[in-house]
Amino acid sequence: MKKIVVFTALGGVALALSACDVEQTEEAELPEVNVEASGGNMPEYDVDTADVELKTEERTVEVPVIETEPADADAE
């Protein structure tokens, strides 16, 4: 059974590798770039933010009690 799986996998890989043929027809070339820059200026912003107050307080939260029982304890 393992031999069949291995041969099937190898056949699939061989088919995938032979399914298309790619040939490079032209070499790549980077463009010539000339960048000249003079001094710049970052924009300025005047931002008014909201006033936020943070505080903490202690609270008691009731948590439900959940009890579970195995469906069949003798099944193990």
Describe the structure.
- With 76 residues, the chain is mainly alpha-helical.
- It is built from one helix and no strands.
- It has one helix at residues 2-18.
- The two termini are 33 Å apart.
- Keywords: Signal.
Summarize the structure.
This protein has one helix and no strands.
Key attributes of the depicted protein:
mainly alpha; single chain; flat
Task: Give the arrangement of secondary structure elements.
Blueprint: H1 2-18
> Beta-sheet strand percentage?
under 5%
Shape verdict: flat
What sequence of helices (H) and strands (E) makes up the elements?
Answer: H
N→C terminal distance: 33 Å
Main β-sheet description: none
The mean pLDDT is 83
Q: Please tally the helical runs, counting DSSP H or I stretches of 4 or more residues.
A: 1
Give unreliable regions as ranges: none
What helical percentage do the residues reach? 10-25%
What structural class should be given to the helix and strand makeup? mainly alpha
* Total count of strands: 0
Keywords: Signal
Signal peptide: 1-18
Protein name: Secreted protein
